[in-house]
Structures are given as C-alpha cells and as structure tokens.
User: Fold this.
Amino acid sequence: MRNIVHRHLGKVVAGAAIAVAGTAVMVGITLPGTAGADETGGTQGTSQAGQQAGQEQGQGQGQGGSVAPGVVEQPPAEGDKGKGRDPLTDDEITRVEQIAVNPQLRDSSEDVEGDRGPQRLTVDLAEPEAAEADDPDAPRRADVTFYDYRDDTLVSRTVDLDSGKVVRTDTQHGVQPPLSQQENVEATNLLIADPLGAGLKADYKDATGKELTSADQLLVTGGVYRATPGAQPAVLDKCGEHRCVRLFPKIKNGSWIDARSLVIDLSARKVAALKN
Assistant:
C-alpha cells in the first residue's frame, strides 16, 4: 500500500508534515484570507438578495404570465443600518451588492462558473476620507470587489450607503487578490474532473475507502499562483494575467493531501502539473 500511495500525484500526508513542507513551498504564494463569501457572512446577504430579486420578478408579471410594462427600478430597502465605524450589517452588505452590480456590469461580466454577473470577492467598510478622519458623522461607504472572468478584470466599487450611489469605480488587469471560497470550490471540482486529478482521488480513496466525486467531501483552501519563467509548462504562462490557484485540500476529519504540484487556471478552466 505504501508503494501505491507514493505513486499518486497528491499523496496523503500527516497534518504536521504538510504544515512543515508547506511553509517552504508557500513562500511567495498569496494565501487566501477570510475574504470568501462563505467566511464573511456574505452568503446570507446573497440569499436575501436572491429572494428579493425573485419577488420583484413575480411582481413584474401580470395575470396569465404576461410581462407588465417596464418601470424604473427602485433602490433597495435600507434595512438595518450601522453607525460610524460599526461593521457593515447583513442588510447593508445585501444593499451594497445590489447597488454595485448594476445591469450593465451584470450583463457584461461572468463569474467563476461562467454564469452572468461578476464573481463577488469582498465587501468591506471603506476607510473615511482624510478630511473625515475625526468626524463621527462621516458618511458610511463600502468597498466592493469583484472579479470578471470574461476579461480577467478586477472591479472595485465604492458605494455611499447614505445616498445609495456608486461614488467610485476602478478596474485593473493583472491584479490577483486572495481567492473566495467559491473559487476554491470550483478549482477543486475542475481538478477532480481532470485526468490530473487521478492522484488526488486515489489518495482520498486510500484514506477513506470512498470515491471522491465532489469538492464538498474536502476542506479546501487555495493560494493564488503566478507564472514563473521557466518553472512551469507553457500552459501556465498566463497565470497572473489569468486567475490561477494551487490547492491545499484536507479530508474532513482526516489528513491533508499534497496537491501542490498541480495548478488550476480558473480563467481557462485547465489543469496543469508543475515541472519538477
């Protein structure tokens, strides 16, 4: 069995061993923080936004399923509001997302799964302007970041919570902030479906006796991978311009699996193995 495990591309290792090995390998790798939607409370806000969108769609239809005449979209309800430098409430997060993703951005962008609309990364309370630093009544603003997989663009928008308007928009190429949990999950599913994921699946079966078919069976984090000239196959040359990830999967209530030799290009939806 030992010989079989050593032939796998991602062999199972003890938690302590992977921690030591990972320290050396992860130098220069940006590890994800707590910016994922599942880690910031954003999931609940997203669910509320979806429910509201469904209600609005239902209200826009007349009897017999006919579409009612178009109307001007009303701003989202304010809901619970924080004060001063209080953290954003769930209602504020939901409202900020609705304001930041206007119809133009929604229709012109794609998320990590290729669906319409940008990939939400973070929603944070914005720092006050320099002149507002000592003002307890300074406007509350929120910074929202998205990744548009259609053209590999990082989109940042600042929303004024009082006026309900976008007051600043910035777009950047070649900037790769930490990955959201949804992106880590999608990268894992791409790896599982790829022939290069055979080692990962074999190690999982060795450790659990079960087949690995979904990212839900693992606890997974990921680090952004950037291309290093001469250190990877040509298929990864665009990593940095593309959004690429190296995964650190862990069996639930079990061991880590070493998958550091594999890189998933989320933009191109391809998997490649690093050169030794």
Observations:
- The first strand starts at residue 12 and ends at 13.
- The CA atoms of residues 157 and 169 lie 4 Å apart.
- Residues 42-48+77-173 form a domain with the Nuclear Transport Factor 2; Chain: A, fold (CATH 3.10.450.40).
